[in-house]
Amino acid sequence: MNNYFVILAAGKSKRFHKKISKQFYNYRNKEIIDHSIEKSLDSKLFKKVLVVANNLHHFKKKKYYKDISIIKGGKERSDSSRNALKYLKKYKPKNILIHDAARPNFTIKLLNNLINNLKKNKAVIPYIKSKDTIKYKVKNNLFNLNRDKTFFTQTPQAFRFKELYELSIKQENKITDEATLFIDGDYKVKFIKGEKQNNKITYLDDVKTSKTFFGLGFDIHKLVKNEKLYLGGIRIPFHSGLKGHSDGDVILHAITDAILGATVQKDIGTYFPNTKKFKNIRSFKMLKPIIKNLYKSNFSINNLDINLICEQPKVSKYREKIIDSISKVTNLDKGLINLKGKTVEKLGLIGKEKAIACEVIISITKYD
Ligand code: ZN
Question: Which of 15, 281, 287, 316 lies 20 to 30 Å from 159 when distance is taken between CA atoms?
Fold first, then answer.
């Protein structure tokens, strides 16, 4: 196991952010660079993990600080890479992997694959096929590159140390990856399948994330004779209706509360108290501003699951109409709304048709 791992992290990442150094940006619960360092240490494949960076003091508080070596980077990526090779020469490495800190998502499986392929090769490079059609510009003329013949190289890239060292010392051009040295020098390069998720983080947009939340809603209203029955925003023909300060629509109330729950905004009573202003208000008028605010805050609804708990009316008879109506109020695709009817075996107040209850669970995702 004479393998060494080099992580290049001295770049200024000007395309990422004016002030934030990309490699220290928080991504999936840790700094971008931590992913590469911790994975390479966890793999137990390397005698040494060497980080090339410019602010060496940054690493002093890290829990892995004692397990890695750190040296200062150069002006360009190729200078940093050469600094690493010069530093490591005294250890007489057999194999060396060079990696850009901006790719936090490679797997240990890929590391194993690279090292295994080094047994019979001097340079092993992971690649993925191009998804896009690429144009090539020569002076003012554009040419199409054949997509089947173009591919993207990734890092880590694996080499025999001796050959890489010699090529790197001789090289004067500012190369952007070490594979270039072997290709330009007409050396044989072994290409292996890279990993789609091992994409390079270049722009702040590349690390924007989404978070999913759940909310629970429950409501119950008393059934009284000669009232209109509203369920899910529509009028249902029935001998009784639900009594409330509003129209008593248990479904829309439970949906409203579920949304408020998922977004940590207290409850429906906070926004629509039992005051004169909201007397006999139709419930879709309460739900609509909550929905509008939800979408305005970059949330989207994943799905809505509803239990309507009553003996009568039979849900199956009105299911489509109710879902249709909820879909309109919430601006949510009908295919994402489920309505279940649940009786209570004639038990209690609901069983005696004195009340109707409803419970709702909602899943929503916030996008940055
Ligand atoms: Zn209610």
Answer: 15
